[in-house]
Amino acid sequence: MRIVVKVGTSTLAHSTGRLNIRQVEKLCKVLSDLKNAGNEVILVSSGAIGMGVGKLMLSARPKDVPTKQAAAAVGQCELMYTYDKLFTEYNHTVAQILLTGADLEDEQRRTNFQNTLYRLLELQALPIINENDTVATEEIGVGDNDTLSAIVARCADADLLVLLSDIDGLYTADPHKDHNARLIPFVAQLTPEIYALAGGKGSELGTGGMSTKLNAAKTAMENGFDMVIANGSRPESLYEIVEGMPVGTRFIGKNVI
């Protein structure tokens, strides 16, 4: 199975922006084990700006573009150093790919990206993909890694996309405000009612929210692969997700549940 896993900033970092070491170690262990089982794994990782905020000792996520890009430049180094160190412990080689919207919109550049991605998988490497926040601006950026991960999964002809975040999945209402809110285990069609359930932005360090996840689900379902939203605090739930067990919310892109 070819699996794309997107991990959000809230899973990788504490609210301070500093690395959540325990979470990242668990994530790398599970992904390594999934590869050992014969799966092809692609990781779309947020966290560069958030980690840069922590490492530069900034009080909050910057609002101006130059400082965001500076934080990304610092944070991306720490992010890849950590991934390289942890995956190497499990005998897996990682490869970094940084993309902008222009790389994916231009046919030739998108083809070049796909060729590199497929070759890395053939070489048994584990591609780690992020938006190139050091140069991306509103005009040329993808905007969020939920959308990026769906595009990557489509380009990779993936079987499954998993979005790991700080939420358990899609609910009938905001679970922080409504104690009667129920988790929706399966979504077979993106109706206006489903879109109406999307709230606002996620954590302060991140850029996503439920609306970007539903947009990613639309891409997945239109291209024939499932997408699952699950809580990143339990990376071991990836085992159950890959086996098709009910975890989080699964958006059905295939013909059968």
The unreliable regions are 200-208
Broad structural category: alpha/beta
Helical residues, percent: 40-55%
**Would you report the number of β strands?**
8
What fraction of the residues are assigned to beta strands by DSSP? Answer: 15-25%
Specify the number of helices.
10
Q: How many angstroms separate the termini?
A: 17 Å
H-E string: EHHEHHEHHEHEEHHEHE
Shape annotation: globular
How would you sum up the major sheet? 8 strands, mixed
Tell me about this structure.
By secondary structure, this protein is an alpha/beta fold. It has helices at residues 9-12, 21-36, 48-55, 65-89, 101-105, 107-122, 145-155, 192-195, 210-222, 237-242, and strands at 2-7, 40-45, 94-99, 126-131, 160-165, 186-187, 226-231, 249-251. It has an 8-stranded mixed beta sheet, sandwiched between helices.
Question: What is this structure's SSE topology?
Answer:
Blueprint: E1 2-7, H1 9-12, H2 21-36, E2 40-45, H3 48-55, H4 65-89, E3 94-99, H5 101-105, H6 107-122, E4 126-131, H7 145-155, E5 160-165, E6 186-187, H8 192-195, H9 210-222, E7 226-231, H10 237-242, E8 249-251
